[in-house]
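Students often ask what a holo structure prediction actually looks like on paper. The answer is less mysterious than it sounds. You provide the chain, you provide the ligand, and the output is a string of discrete structure tokens encoding the 3D arrangement of the protein together with zinc ion.
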Amino acid sequence: MTDAARHLVSLSFDDGFRASSIRTAEIFERRGLAASFNVIATGHHADFSSPDAYQDAIEKGDFGLWRDLAERGHEIMPHGYRHANKGELPFAEARDLVERCLEVFAAELPAFRAEEAVLGLPYNAASDELAAWLPSVVRAYRVGGDGINDMPDATLVRLSSTVFGPRNGNEAHFFAKIDELTARESGWLVYLLHGLGEEGYGPVSEDFLEEMLDALCEIDSVDLVTPARALARA
Ligand SMILES: [Zn+2]
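The corresponding structure tokens follow.
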């Protein structure tokens, strides 16, 4: 984070699609940037079936890929044990799924620390009871909203994020959010994406991802930063 940065932007890529994640990481690396991925703990299992039927046809990455991307400087964060909607589940069941998810991440990723992690909730949803409990096990959790947060500090545990979908067409939405952010004195935009090309919810083209990154790098007041690192620096 530079001293001049009054605005932070985090792009977060959900669901762990294998081909898209590899290409996304490469696009960030060409600019010396780190990407952030929220992946499903069991998404790579042969019997994994997402509540979103369209996801099943898309190959997921496994923890061999996630370890490789983490070693290359990217951020690998949890996105649930099996992509259940935790706004709809009873608290005990949702808590159990979060605990199992964090156990998988701790076992599979050498540098993973739950107390520093940002849990990207599937469907951006949590019951009030779950939301009250989550800060006891993770640094922060991500839900849906307008996507613009105050600058991170030690008290920030609930991250608002915004997403466009289900079809592509993010261009106008993304740049409107950047304008909304930079019109404020300061703030932190958490913008949620999924895959590239045709993969996932609201996919973007590789060309548009490059355009987004280049546009962000051009704005002096903006730092592009991964969510957990933004919180760790706060
Ligand atoms: Zn998801």
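The chain has seven helices and nine strands.
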